[in-house]
Amino acid sequence: MDRELTIWLLIFAVGALTYTARLSFIALFAHREMPPLMAQALKHVPVAMVTAIVVPAVVFTMPGELRLDVGNAKLIAALVAGAVAAWRQSAVMTIAVGMIVLWSLRYVVG
Amino acid sequence: MAPMMLGVIPFGMVCGVGAIAAGASPIAALAMSMIMFSGAAQIVAVQLLAAGAPFAVILLSCLVVSLRLVMYSAAMAPYLRPLDHRWRALLSFVLTDQAFAGTLQRFQSSGDVRANASYFLGSGALLWVIWQLATLAGILAGQIIPASWQLEFVVPLCFLAVLVPLLRDRIAILVFTVATVAVIALDAMPLRLSMVCGGLLGIAAGVLGDKMAAKRG
User: Fold this and answer.
1) How close B145 comes to chain A (CA, Å)?
2) Which of A98, A19, A67 is nearest to B154 (CA)?
3) Domain spans in chain B, listed from the N-terminal domain onward
4) What's chain B's average pLDDT?
5) Distances in Å between the alpha carbon of B156 and those of A15, A75, B160, B203, B210?
6) Domain span at residue A68?
7) What is the pLDDT of residues B169-210, one digit of tens each?
8) Parallel, antiparallel, or unpaired: how do β-strands A65-66 and A60-62 relate?
9) Count of domains observed in chain A
């Protein structure tokens, strides 16, 4: 499928999805309580999903090529940025430091 | 509300940069922010598009990250019950992490439903406008800055800024560890399903961890 068309279909499909999620208990199931197991599982969604998205983007330099050594600039940049995020909870600083480390390793060190 | 609203600017910019890096046209990149209006879903969609995941897998992953909104919806629902359908439909559209955090306390402490709903709608609408402007800035940056700068790496960095402060207790660290090991171990799965499966295994580990912690007292 054409990439631009795929992206537009995705925009409307995900838009419908996020709106349905927002409407869920406010309008669709307005008179029901959330099942307890669902409430418990939802608590862990942010950490689990964000981890599952971040980790592959950092540890694989190429599709299928796992690199857990110091030669992986993205891994080093992410570790430093993660330390910054733990120290100061600032998205701007985390992103800035991460990019500076990545660029330094790529162009300054080689 | 003000610091929270300004706090979304870097995330909106990341959505703009990421969408351009994933091959979206500037109009589509902006439409993403206007219609999806969810940083988490947008960043996940963009990251998976860039990774070459098929449509259904992207949709499934966005579904999982959007479950958070279901939780907010359930928490807000009792306070919005007195309002008619139109109000509820409108307020639902602007229900975001920031609007939720910024208005829930107001609903809890004051019984004036109309005034609270107006505040919710006003701050939600303002947040929507700020989100579009931030995305636009990101789209411009994404078009001007050459690909060799690897600007798409701001997407995982932005997620990292969200993730690290969440790793406060042992259960959160368990969820992180299980999701990390699973997503690496399952990388060979077809259709980039490793991300959804890794995430779901992390969630399952968290539920089990909670159960065990409760049993121990």
Assistant:
1) 13
2) A98
3) 2-162, 167-217
4) 90
5) 22, 11, 6, 20, 28
6) 36-109
7) 999 999 999 999 999 999 988 877 898 899 999 999 999 999
8) antiparallel
9) 2
**3 state SS of A75:** helix
Q: Does residue B57 contact residue B177 with C-beta atoms inside 8 Å?
A: no
Asked if the ipTM is above 0.95, the reply is no
B91 vs B131: CA distance, rounded Å: 17
A14 CB contacts (<8 Å, ≥6 apart)? B35, B36, B38, B41, B42, B45, B58, B59, B62
Instruction: Please tell me whether residues A105 and A85 are part of one structural domain.
Output: yes
Closest CA relative to residue B152, chosen from A41, A77, A43? A77
DSSP string, chain B: -HHHHHHHHHHHHHHHHHHHHTT--HHHHHHIIIII--HHHHHHHHHHHHTT--HHHHHHHHHHHHHHHHHHHHHHHHHHTTS-HHHHHHHHHT--HHHHHHHHHHHHH---HHHHHHHHHHHHHHHHHHHHHHHHHHHHHHHHS-GGG-GGGHHHHHHHHHHGGG--SHHHHHHHHHHHHHHHHTTTSGGGTHHHHHHHHHHHHHHHHHHHHHHH-
This prediction has a pTM of 0.82
CB within 8 Å of chain A, chain B residues 128-187 = 149-151, 153-167, 171-172, 175-176, 178-180, 182-184, 187
Residue of A3, A49, A93, A105 to mutate for B, most B C-beta atoms under 10 A: A49
Residues A1, B200, B177, B96, CA torsion sign:
positive
Residues A27, A48 within the same domain: no
Single-letter amino acid code for the residue at A27? A
Residue of B nearest to A27 (CA): B88
Give yes or no: residues A60 and A87 share one domain. Answer: yes
pLDDT grade, residue A108 (50/70/90)?
Answer: confident
- Find all residues with CB under 8 Å of B40, minimum gap 6, and list them: A49, B65, B66, B68
Asked if B77 and B87 count as a contact pair (C-beta separation under 8 A), the reply is no
How long is chain B? 217
A88: tokens are 């100061």
